[in-house]
Structures are given as C-alpha cells and as structure tokens.
Amino acid sequence: MALPDDARERALSDDARERAVPNDARERAMFPLGSPLLPGGVLPLHIFEPRYRALARRCTDTSEPFGVVMIERGSEVGGGDVRADVGCLAAIVEHQELPDGRWMMIAAGDRRIRVVEWLADDPYPRALAADWPDEPAEVAATERQAAVARLRRLRARASEIGAIGVTAAESAAVDDQLASLAMTPGDASAWSFQLASLVPAGPFDRHQMLCSPDPARRLAVIGEVLDGVEELLGER
Predict the structure, then answer these.
(1) Of 101, 177, 204, 231, which has the most beta carbons under 10 Å away?
(2) Rounded CA gap, 159 and 177, in Å?
(3) What pLDDT is stored for residue 165 in this prediction?
(4) Model pLDDT for residues 72-112, shown as the tens digit of each residue
(5) Burial grade of 133 (CB within 10 A; 0-12, 13-18, 19 or more)
(6) What is the pLDDT of residues 125-183, one digit of tens each?
(7) Long-range Cβ pairs for the range 18-21 (8 Å, 24+)
(8) Cβ(208)–Cβ(223) under 8 Å?
(9) What is residue 79's predicted lDDT score, i.e. its pLDDT?
(10) Could you tell me which residues come within 8 angstroms of residue 57 by beta carbon, excluding any fewer than 6 positions away?
(11) Which residue(s) pair with 69 in the sheet?
C-alpha cells in the first residue's frame, strides 16, 4: 500500500538525513559562548550555571572534550540563543570544583568541528558533530613571514600610542609566539590558526577565520582584518 504524501515526505527526509550524517559524527557536549575558540587557543572558564556544571562533571569524569561554538544572537546565560554550526573541540587542561558547586577550568582548542544536528539541551547543550579538517593548501614561506612582519609592525604602532591593553608580560609572550611563527615551516593549518589567535579581532572576524576552508583563505581573512587595524591606527 502506498504511503500518504506527508508520510512519504517524512520518510524521504529521514533517509536524506541519514545519508548526510558523516561516519565520524558523534554526540558531543557543547558550550556556546560569545566568542569562538580556535584550534590551539586557550579558554579560561568560570562555570556557574547548573547545566554547564553538569557538562563539567561529565567531561571531567570521562576525560572527554566538549565543543565550543559562537553564539550568533542571544545570551550565554539562560538559553534561547542562536548558535553557529562551526566550532572547536576543547580539551580540559586544568579544572577545580569549588565548594559552592562552581567550576574553574582551563581548556585548550583541539580541532575544528561542524555541527550536523543540535540535540535537546538536556541536561546541557548537546549536538551531533563531526571533525572538519582544513582542505589541503600551502602557504609560502615568504607569505608567512610577510604576515608575521605586518602584525609585528601594527603591534609596535599600537604600543606607541597606548592602544594595547595587555601587560608587559603578556605582550612579550605574544612577541615570542610571533618570532616562532616567523621561523616555523611546519603544518600550514596549525600555523594559520596560531597566527589567527594573535590577531586583534572581534568575535565575528575570528569566527570567519575559524570557518575558512583552508590555510591560504584563512590568511586572506587575516589580511582583511589587519587592513581594518591599519585604518584604526591611521596607517592607511
């Protein structure tokens, strides 16, 4: 007996969804935040909301990472937010549960993920997510060195006019990382994410860097962001 039209459409939709789910997709605990996390980045967290206390408990008990995505609209607290579908897995590096139930945590960005489907927020935000590695693309050594030199120059200019709101120790740490990036001929994907994490950028620009499909196009986004920094500093 033939299925009714609405039942046939539901069956076709379910079949299409099954075909679209990558083989490596799995359920992940998710932590939507106001700013994205990049692979290689560091994420300090002060966790006080009950649902994220439950997330912290699960991930520390199981040593599992959790996914971090940017909130495109809405608030970090209370739910009802609109979340991006591209994020980063975060591995817990340090954690402490306080006597009142709050958590202090430091996590590190591991690898990029794409959300296949959001699941019910019970007992915390969850999603079916799959790894999303960069497409292969090389970035020439001359391009790498030019990008690092440009960021160094802009940082020096910002420091001259008092526009860098970090401590001397933090600024020195960034300078050391830039020096390393200028000399490192390693993996282009990791290199581009490391450089992106040092660029002064707002959350939406940083999310665009995260979503760039390969290192070469990520470097192009970084260049556009630095164009804006130059304008702000009166360098253009």
Answers:
(1) 177
(2) 17
(3) 66
(4) 987 666 666 889 999 999 999 999 999 999 999 999 999 99
(5) exposed
(6) 999 999 999 999 999 999 999 999 999 999 888 888 777 666 778 888 888 999 999 88
(7) 20/116, 21/116, 21/117, 21/128, 21/130
(8) no
(9) 60
(10) none
(11) 32, 87
- In DSSP terms, 156 is beta-bridged to none
- What residues does each domain of the chain span? 26-131, 141-232
**206's tokens:** 């940083």
DSSP string, the chain: -PPPHHHHHHHHHHHHHHHHS-TT-EEEEEEEESS---TT-EEEEEE-SHHHHHHHHHHHHHT--EEEEEEEES-SSSS--EEEEEEEEEEEEEEEE-TTS-EEEEEEEEEEEEEEEE---SSS-EEEEEE-PPPP----HHHHHHHHHHHHHHHHHHHHTT---S-HHHHHHHHHHHHHHHH--S-HHHHHHHHHHHS---HHHHHHHHH-SSHHHHHHHHHHHHHHHHHHTT--
26-131 classified as CATH 3.40.190.10? no
pTM attached to this predicted model: 0.84
Task: Quickly tell me which residue has 């450089």 as its tokens.
Answer: 195
